[in-house]
Amino acid sequence: MELARATNRSVRLRNRAALLTKLFLDGPLTRQDLVRSTGLSQPAVSNVVSDLIEEGLVAEAGAAESDGGRPSMMLRIAPRFAFLVGVDVGETRVRVELFDFAMTLLASVEYPLDPARTEPAEVAGHVLAGIDAVTGAAGVAPADVLGVGIGVSGVVSQGEHAVVHAQALGWDRVPLERLIAAGTDLPLHIDNGAKTLGQAEMWFGAGRGARHAVFALVGSGVGAAVVTGGVTYRGASSSAGEWGHTTLVYGGRPCRCGALGCLEAYVGAEAIIERYREARRGRPVPGEDEESQLNALIDDAATSATARQVLDDTAAYLGAGVANLINLFNPERVVLGGWAAMALADLLPAVREAAGRQALRQPYEQASIELCRLGVDAVALGAATLPIARFLADGGVRR
Amino acid sequence: MELARATNRSVRLRNRAALLTKLFLDGPLTRQDLVRSTGLSQPAVSNVVSDLIEEGLVAEAGAAESDGGRPSMMLRIAPRFAFLVGVDVGETRVRVELFDFAMTLLASVEYPLDPARTEPAEVAGHVLAGIDAVTGAAGVAPADVLGVGIGVSGVVSQGEHAVVHAQALGWDRVPLERLIAAGTDLPLHIDNGAKTLGQAEMWFGAGRGARHAVFALVGSGVGAAVVTGGVTYRGASSSAGEWGHTTLVYGGRPCRCGALGCLEAYVGAEAIIERYREARRGRPVPGEDEESQLNALIDDAATSATARQVLDDTAAYLGAGVANLINLFNPERVVLGGWAAMALADLLPAVREAAGRQALRQPYEQASIELCRLGVDAVALGAATLPIARFLADGGVRR
DNA sequence: CCACTTTAATGACGACATTAATTAAGCCGT
DNA sequence: ACGGCTTAATTAATGTCGTCATTAAAGTGG
After folding, report:
1. What are the sequence ranges of the domains in chain A?
2. In chain B, which among 272-311 make CB contacts under 8 A with chain A?
3. What is the per-residue pLDDT across A336-395, written as a single tens digit (0 to 9) for each?
4. CB neighbours (10 Å) of residue A178?
5. Is the model's pLDDT at A1 over the cut of 60?
6. Is the CATH number of domain A83-198+378-393 3.40.190.10?
7. InterPro entries per the record (chains A, B) (predicted)?
8. Per residue, what are the HEC states of B210-227?
């Protein structure tokens, strides 16, 4: 709606952004490839590319195959032009990873958290220590780090400084960005962990090529990341996509959010285990943590009709939840991720079927329902893409 | 993601689009206002504006107030630069309206439909006849009509030609655009009626100023239009926002879509009346049509606890549905519209309260829940804005 | 070794916005 | 009535940038 003004400079910036983005996501490519994919003229591409090479952002990488005629040079983003830090602030640990510009993992470090009481200052300390640790380990100068992306399992309100609300950590309006910014000058990008995971899948995993996709994450809790037009949808205050706390069973099971009948109260790992426990007439499910308890349930399903029923119900609930996403967002693709969804991968056909029963035919036929490709640890990878996304959109100019 | 290339010409086009859009939505304005709001320099604004005046798109309209200094001229979109046709294809009638460029209604005509069997060709015929009728009545030359916007109560898939799926009309993959295009050369824009109504409320009603809003429509059926970043969200095949068929009560009442427990099966007017009938142990609700039956229920609520209970339940269901929208889309504003919602306006406080119980606190506090301002007939008005939106985005150049 | 093809680089040209300077058009007080 | 002041709009000079047309470069194949 509110269009920004355009000036002659912004033309160059836009074209730089287009070429850089294309090279980053689909590179290496030749100048001619860029001509074809962007619609720019040959001289314009050459001109911009020569700037980018001079700035060290892009490098030539050998000649392409040719059958007659001058062979074209391959171009690619220079892998060591800059480095990225990605952070995953989970409920049980803080994980800090360092990547080069080609998203190759260079170093990582992990700090366990006491889930009982997680102090924001402690988390901020871990993040800062982690940045020092990974840059030190890889021998990367802090000045060469383009930015730090942080994925947090909780609602993140963007504003002057990002503020975190995380029920599971007992956080309410924690000014995490301010706490971390006090200890570093690096640009910070804080976002919800589901959204960063979605971003990773979008660029490097099951979302590649889609313009409209929903990434549905099932772990202990349940969340979603919505990508519309290739970009993560954030809404007014960045908390869009709280799929786990949509009502699926009006007046149903109490959810830890305080409401009744939330999706999470049925298909979150904690809820699945609890439903199994109830189905066993209160007999506890063996296992020292949720992951092993869920696996116990899956093992039991081979022999126990009770366990089988719990899993069938889970697929049906999940399918209905997915159907809601399909009806509301009309995505090309729904990607199921999170550790519980991956453990329950065998339920995928049943989930598809249940979704087909509850969704409208037309949007359902447009959407494919798939499993994620990158696994759970991609939260940090996705977080590291946040500074890159900004950088690419800005045409490769640091703010 | 896929950025379009920019050329020198596109700079002018973008700036024209920015000025025109601002003038259309917030005009009349002075050149100085435009300088301030767009960030363009004075000469650039003057230059573009003089082009627009020369083309007849914009006109000067008197001097503005001034306390010292040369008074600035007011600028406004020329109301008679072009005309728009808006069409509302409902379940019981086709309504065709003609507007000038200031969206003043000049003429309108209505054709009743037999809801039992509605032939696509018949509807197309009504639309074509309606275009002739309204332009004839207002003395507007067809060449001066910028385009025809059509809001249809059904799922509209955009493609080469728009295709309509409308359960209520018994339509499946009806190539409505092709049928109409056979009889006119005017540019056609077909969209879902809920989306066009949302567009009208967004530009001229309860949505003004919001960037993220959801328009929830409750009539005989239930639908929604989602606006993200000021633009209607369509999804992969334009069917996004099918709120009425999201599951609210897992395994609950059968819906006419074939699934169980859809929101529409609880809060659609038809469903409300049916629930009331059941609460009356099967005694039919008096009234010859849904509207009068719903009013009978509302009247009864003053004296009957049974009726009161049905309405209270309705507010609670609706609130839970709204909470789902808030959790998923994180809008600044939720606008309730549709004839049934307007009849039930007194339930608004109860709906707000119920939404607060089921939504997460953070996004709930960001969102206001309001009634629509334009009434039900704004479908055609919103449809008429479709050609304008295209025209403004193109910088005031016809394709 | 030369014709042919494809890629890359140059130069003339035109579209546009920007800044700085001018001109236009009104207030106000004497 | 008439300068002085303020704000609005236009003109002039400057610089950015993409396009088209042309030239240079770098291969393959007979």
Report:
1. 8-77, 83-198+378-393, 206-371
2. none
3. 999 999 999 999 999 999 999 999 998 999 999 999 999 888 999 999 999 999 999 998
4. 15
5. no
6. no
7. ATPase_NBD, HTH_ArsR_DNA-bd_dom, ROK, ROK_cs, WH-like_DNA-bd_sf, WH_DNA-bd_sf
8. CCCEEEEEECCCEEEEEE
